[in-house]
Amino acid sequence: MRQIYEYHPVLGYRYIPNLRARIPHEGGGYLVQVNDDGFRSNRPFAAAPAPGKRRVLVFGDSFTAGDAVPNHERYTDLLEPVLGAEVYNYGLSSTGTDQQYLAWREFAQHVEHDVVVIAVFVENVRRVVAHYRPHRDASGVERIYAKPYFTLERDTLRLHHVPTPAEPFDQHHMAPAEQATVDAGGRFPLLRKVVTALGAREVVQRLTHYQPLPEYDSPDTDGWRLMRAILSLWVRALERPVVLMPLPLPQHIDEVSGSAGYQARFAELSAELGCTLHDPLPDFLGYAKEQRRRFRWEHDIHFTPEGHRVLTRSLAPVLAQLLGSRPAFKEQA
Q1: First-to-final CA distance of the chain
Q2: Which of 78, 81, 194, 213 could link 312 by a cystine bridge, Cβ 3.0 to 4.6 Å?
Q3: CB neighbours of 230 closer than 8 A, spacing ≥ 6?
Q4: How far is Cα 97 from Cα 82, in angstroms, rounded to an integer?
Q5: Rounded Cα distance, 217 and 325, in Å
Q6: What is the CATH number of domain 51-323?
Q7: At what angle do helices 75-83 and 305-323 cross, to 10 degrees?
């Protein structure tokens, strides 16, 4: 598989600037185009918007960057004609909210804008506590790579791994304490693989009332306290309106896992920070179960073009209100 990332000393990695590559995928493959800053975009990110244009900056992981679809089918790109505004997508696949904050700090804090959207795939509550994450190298071999991360020390955030070590690690050569900080992809990873292989994931989750993200069950868990501190630092540093948008897991859209925990935590945080909370889950759940299943791929959990269109319809009215405009949907949007 073609390598599409390069090392970055602050973020850990970014897309290779000015890359244009077709990525194999179950949907037939998709085109990735990258601008000179190293983000998926068909244009450079200018410091000032075009005359008369409003601008929205969007941050997130692969669900925002648009894994599995070309640039023009992502919800950010679909929002542009609906809002009549520029929408800059700073999403970076496989990153945590900590790295997304650093992307804003390194690349976007001096870019003029009217609204910022922080799209938090709710799994990121685990990623922020990780010091290392597995990635496949150019030859397709899974290796362990360091990531930048924060620790919370007496309510103060301290940044580590910047500059980020560039060379990958062999996990069995790492000290046990460091091995414990590798993000293995969820609770009970072996069980998850077995359940997936058997095609029984939904049945097991329904029978066990499996909650994939217990970090949201209380405001006092280590994962949520760290996530909360990062988001608080970020939102308070922004001078324009902010939309916090938690993106649900497939289990939440399928209604096999409860969402009350993360919904409560983000509601508390947005009220404390005075920013806008937009939870798209109710809009996803407004569709029949059979239709909801088409919002992601058969094997890949990322949004299909149909899923991106639903998210566009969900988010557009919120942004339009903040921009002082009215969303202009077309029938196919």
Answers
A1: 32
A2: 78
A3: 97, 98, 101, 128, 150, 157
A4: 27
A5: 37
A6: 3.40.50.1110
A7: 40
DSSP bridge partners of 59: 118
Distances (CA, A) of 193 to 82, 184, 332: 40, 12, 37
Report percent pLDDT > 70 for the chain: 91
* pTM to 2 decimal places: 0.93
Which residues 6+ apart lie within 8 Å of 21 measured at CB?
2, 4, 31, 32
Largest CA distance in the chain: 56
The pLDDT of residue 171: 86
d(CA 108, CA 37): 10
Distance CA 9, CA 298 (A): 35
Contact 93, 67 (CB under 8 A): yes
Asked whether 302 and 296 are in contact (CB, 8 A), the reply is yes
Six-digit token string for 156: 């103060």
Q: Map tokens 């390598």 to a residue.
A: 3
Phi, psi of 317 (to 5 degrees): -60, -35
Give whole-number Cα distances, 41 to 32, 86, 107, 267, in Å: 8, 12, 14, 31
